[in-house]
Structures are given as C-alpha cells and as structure tokens.
Specification:
The chain has about 525 residues and is of the alpha/beta class. The chain contains eight helices and 15 strands. The protein binds adenosine-5'-diphosphate and magnesium ion.
Length: about 525
C-alpha cells in the first residue's frame, strides 16, 4: 500500500512536474504572447497614429480639393469674363484700327495741304524778306534824310529863336504899354453933380495905337494938351484878347530861355487887376477861355505857356510856381503853410547873398503840369490875399502880388556844337535870380553847382531856366540880363484922376528912357524911338 502510494506520489509528482512544466511553458508562452501583444499594441498605436495622420491629411486634401474646386469655378467664370473682355477688346481694336487708318488718311490729306501751304508761305516769306530788305534800305535812307532834316530843323529853330528875339528886341526889351479903361458908373460916385460935373469928363484919349493925348481945359486950371508915346496904347474899347495878343510873343521868348516880367502899374481902380486877371477871381480854375472871354493876362499866359510846351513834348520843361504878396514892406509867401499855426501865407525875409544880391529866403515853389493847376494855385493865393488875417487892408494898392513861373528844362544833348548862339548860352547858364536855400526851383539848386560852367565844359548835364514874373506894381527887380519887361500902364480916363494919371504916364515915359539908354549902349536902335 505505501508503495502504491509512493508510486502514486511519484506519478503525481511527475504529473505535477509535468503540469508545472506545462505551466511554465504556458507562462513563457503567455509572456511571449504578452510581449507579442505589447508589440502589437505598439504597432496598433503606431497604426492608429498613422490613421489619424492620414485622416488629417485626407481632411487637408479634402479642404484643398474644395478650395481648388472653388478656384476652378472662379477661374472658369473669370475666364468666361476674360474671354468676353478679350472679344470686346478685339472688337475695339478692330474699330480703333479702322479709325486709325481713317485718321492717318485724314492726316495725310491735311499734311499734304499744310505742306503746300508751308511751301507757299516760305515762298511768300522770301518775297517779304526781299520787300523788307528794300524797305529797310529805304528806312535807312529816310532815317538819314530825317536826321538831315532834324539837323536843318535845329539850325532853323535856332535861327527862329534869334529872329524872334531880334523882333522882340526891336519892340524893346523894356516895353511900356498903356491901357485906358472905359468910363465906369463908379467914376460918378461921391461927386457933387453941380460943382464937379466936368470931373467925370474924359481927359485921356487914345489918339492912335501908340499915342495918348491928355487934354484938359478946365476953367481956373492951366491948359493941358500933352501927348505921350508908348509901344502900344489900348483904347477903352479894346478887348482882353487884343491886349494879350500883343503880349503873346513874350511867352515864346520865355520858352526860348529869356526871363520875362509883365507888370501892371497904375492907381487904384485904373484896371490893373482887370488887365492882369480879369473881372472875376479865378475861383474855378477849370474855367477856360471859351467860357470866359474876358480873362486877363495871367490865365491867358498860363494857357499859352502850356500850349507852347505841348507843341514840343520832347523837351517839356518843369514848371514851378511861387506866389508872393508884398504888403507894408513885408513879404508873404502865399504858397507856404506855417508849420505851427497851419495858417497859409508865411512871412519871408529878404537876405543878402555873398555876391551882394537880394534874395528871398525859403520861398515855396510848387510844381504844376497844366494851366488849370497853375490857375488853381493863383486862385488859392488870391483868396488868401483877401482873407489872411495879417493882411486885412482896405487899400488894395498897398498890397502887391508877384506870381513867378519858373521853367526848368534839361539842356539839349547836342548843345555843345551850338555854343556861338548867345540865347542857348542863356538857356544853359541862366541869369535868373535865385532863391537862397529853401525849396528853390531845380535849376537854382543844380545850375549853381560847381559843374555848371559854360556850354561844352565837362560836367553833369546842366539845366536851363527861365522865369515869367507877373506883377501888379511898378518896380525894377526883373530888369537886367536879357530879361524882357513889359509895363502895362493902366489909367483912368477921368479928369478927376488926372494927377495920378499924369504921374503914371510920366513913370512910363521914364521907363522908356531906360530902354533908349540901353539902345545907345549897344542894343540896335529901334525905329520906333520918338
Ligand atoms: P485896380 O486893380 O487897378 O485897383 P481894377 O482892375 O480892380 O482896378 O478895376 C476897377 C474896376 O474897373 C473893376 O470893377 C473892373 O472890372 C473895372 N475895369 C477896369 N478896367 C476895365 C476895362 N478895360 N473894361 C471894363 N471894366 C474895367
Ligand atoms: Mg487891383
């Protein structure tokens, strides 16, 4: 029994060992399989990852595919549009091409026309050029002729000046005219009609245009029957125009470079202002001779002066004006404004220069370019003469007015070869009186410079100057040099003014004696001396 058990034990052991072996084999197999399983898991994971990747790729490709599809669709529609545009462009190009051809054809036609026109124009230009050349040579010839004529004209002008001056000198550099005014209503005023009826009778008569007869045959008085001769006698009926007609040549002398002085002399009420200015104050400077036939010498001279200037615009002189009033031995500058009171009409002093000449200090000169402007200044001055507070006076004969018009012109460039002409010398080296300092006229500021020597000397261009003085009193300020002086004696025809009239006529005769004295000293004797 134990043996059997042992046997069974052995068998069991063997069996156990077998089973254990099998278990071990199995376990090994399990390990193997587990390993294999792990490997497979790993592979599975790897494949899963690959599948995921592939899925993502597939999705990306899917999107790409969709995009492509979309693009393809877009490209397709764009292609269609492009095709349409290309078709349209083709059509346009076709049309453009045909219109280009048309244009080219037109241009060709026009070109041909233009070319023929150009050819004609060139031909015409050649003709014009030939004509121009012939005109040019004619112009050169004409220019030469003009130059010759101009030179001849200058010579003739100088001759004219000399002749005019000789004519004026023949009439006398100092001329005395006498104007007898008409009897006027106021000549009867304040007279006792019974006792003094003869006083209003005419005692002064113009016998002819050179002779005044003073005839007075009053009871109880010595008989007066006396004649006076003057260069010109104006009767009561003679007009302002006639009076100025005799004076007009002096304006030409002024433009020739001579100083001219015209002064009215006579007793109060004898017609000085009437003769010099006219019956009215020239309030309206725009008034012309047409509207006022009775204008006096001053407005007529202003108009004549600017008329003569306008005749030769190439050498227009500058015209400057000064207006002075002399009252009670005091001199007032009627164009100056007092800087403190702003009142016009400033007192001026007479000063003596180093050369011993009497001159006015700081006299105002105003430039004018027309007769209207000149008369505007005269009107202003005259209004001031009446209104100025320091000049209030009832006796107008004590107030003397001096209007000075100064002409300043540049010397002609070719004056050097005309030196022998004494008048030109006068133009270049004026002997007109000069003011000291102040706003003197240009010529006095410049011609008195060291460079102002005789004509032909080197130096800056010189200026010529001439002055016209219009005065209402007797005086001899302007006599001297080649100045031309005209004294207009104004007389009343009345017996009651006889004393003053005789005095006035006597003054005129004495003035003529001065002229005759000059003639004896070398001025050619005038055939008019009586
Ligand atoms: P004066 O200036 O010499 O004192 P006016 O010129 O004032 O004198 O003349 C005095 C008056 O005589 C004025 O009323 C003026 O109009 C008049 N009169 C002067 N001369 C003439 C004349 N020739 N014809 C007409 N009236 C004249
Ligand atoms: Mg007067």
């Amino acid at each position: 029994m134990p043996a059997r058990g042992a046997k069974w034990g052995r068998v069991a052991d063997q069996r156990v060992q077998q089973l254990q072996h099998q278990v071990r084999v199995k376990e090994e197999r399990i390990v193997e399989l587990e390993t294999e399983n792990s490997i497979l898991h790993l592979k599975l994971a790897e494949y899963q990852e690959m599948i995921g990747k592939s899925n993502r790729e597939a999705t990306r490709f899917y999107f790409l595919y969709n995009e492509k599809q979309y693009l393809q669709r877009n490209i397709h529609s764009t292609l269609i549009k492009l095709y349409q545009v290309i078709q349209k462009l083709k059509q346009d190009i076709k049309e453009f091409h045909s219109s280009c051809l048309e244009l080219i054809r037109n241009y060709q036609d026009q070109y041909r026309v233009c070319l023929s026109e150009i050819v004609t124009a060139v031909h015409r230009t050649q003709l014009y050029n030939e004509a121009l050349q012939s005109h040019q040579s004619r112009a050169v010839h004409l220019e030469k002729c003009l130059q010759e004529i101009n030179e001849q004209y200058q010579i003739e002008k100088q001759k004219r000046k000399l002749l005019h001056n000789s004519l004026v000198e023949l009439k006398g550099n100092i001329r005395v005219h006498c104007r007898i005014r008409p009897l006027l209503p106021f000549d009867n005023e304040f007279d006792d009609p019974v006792q003094n009826s003869s006083l209003c009778e005419k005692a002064i008569h113009a016998v002819d245009d050179e002779t005044v007869l003073v005839k007075c045959n009053r009871p109880g008085h010595p008989l007066i029957n006396k004649t006076y001769n003057f260069e010109r006698v104006y009767g009561p009926a003679e007009s302002q125009r006639t009076v100025f007609g005799e004076i007009r040549p002096l304006l030409m002398s002024l433009l020739d470079g001579y100083n001219v002085c015209i002064m009215a002399y006579g007793q109060t009420g004898s017609g000085k202002s009437y003769t010099m200015l006219g019956p009215h104050l020239p309030d309206d400077p725009a008034l012309s001779l047409d509207s006022h036939g009775d204008l006096g010498i001053i407005p007529r001279a202003a108009e004549e002066l600017f008329r003569l200037i306008s005749e030769n615009p190439s050498r227009s002189p500058e015209v400057e004006v000064s207006i002075v009033e002399i009252y009670n031995n005091e001199i007032f500058d009627l164009l100056a404004k007092d800087s403190c009171t702003l009142v016009s009409g400033v007192k001026r002093d007479v000063i003596t220069t180093k050369e011993g000449k009497k001159e006015l200090s700081r006299l105002t000169y105003k430039s004018v370019s027309s007769a209207v402007a000149l008369m505007g200044l005269v009107a202003g001055g005259l209004r001031l003469r009446v209104k100025h507070p320091t000049l209030v006076h009832t006796d107008s004969s004590r107030s003397h007015l001096v209007i000075t018009v100064t002409l300043t012109a540049a010397s002609p460039p070719d004056s050097s070869h005309q030196q022998p002409n004494p008048m030109l010398k006068e133009l270049i080296c004026p002997s007109a009186p000069r003011t000291a300092g102040g706003e003197g006229p240009r010529a006095s500021r410049r011609a008195s410079s060291p460079g102002a020597g005789p004509v032909g000397a080197a130096g800056p261009p010189r200026q010529a100057q001439a002055r016209l003085q219009l005065v209402d009193l007797a005086g001899s300020e302007c006599v001297g040099g080649d100045a031309k002086l005209l004294v207009m004696l104004c007389v009343s025809p009345c017996q009651k003014h006889l004393a003053e009239t005789l005095q006035c006529l006597g003054f005129g005769s004495r003035a003529r004696q001065v002229q005759r004295g000059q003639a004896k000293r070398g001025v050619p004797a005038s055939g008019k001396s009586k």
